[in-house]
Amino acid sequence: MNANSYIGYLNYIVFLFLASGLFIVSFDVRHYKDNRMPKERRAAAISGWMNLVLGAVVYIGSWLYKKYFW
């Protein structure tokens, strides 16, 4: 058995962060803007961008860990 093999759920977590962030930013923010709901729009925008940023940070962190510490 290879000691460098890795089985985990990190790829799924990254995908879910990016997909949900993209969905929130593209659909929910526009819906709240059209219905003139500024507080909800702001909350959706913040949570959507946080999901996108967290997905990118986790992906880059995983890549750096695998490159330098694996």
Outline type: elongated
Low-confidence stretches: none
Strand-pairing-aware structural class: mainly alpha
Number of helices: 2
Number of domains: 1
Series of secondary-structure elements, N-terminal to C-terminal: HH
Give the structure's gist in a few sentences.
With 70 residues, this protein is an all-alpha fold. It has helices at residues 10-34, 38-68.
Give a structural overview:
- The protein has 70 residues and is mainly α.
- It has one domain (3-69).
- Helix content is 80%, strand content 0%.
- The chain is built from 2 helices and no strands.
- The chain crosses the membrane at residues 6-25, 46-65.
Task: Please specify the SSE layout and strand pairing.
Blueprint: H1 10-34, H2 38-68
Descriptive tags:
2 helices; transmembrane; transmembrane helix; 70 residues; elongated; mainly alpha
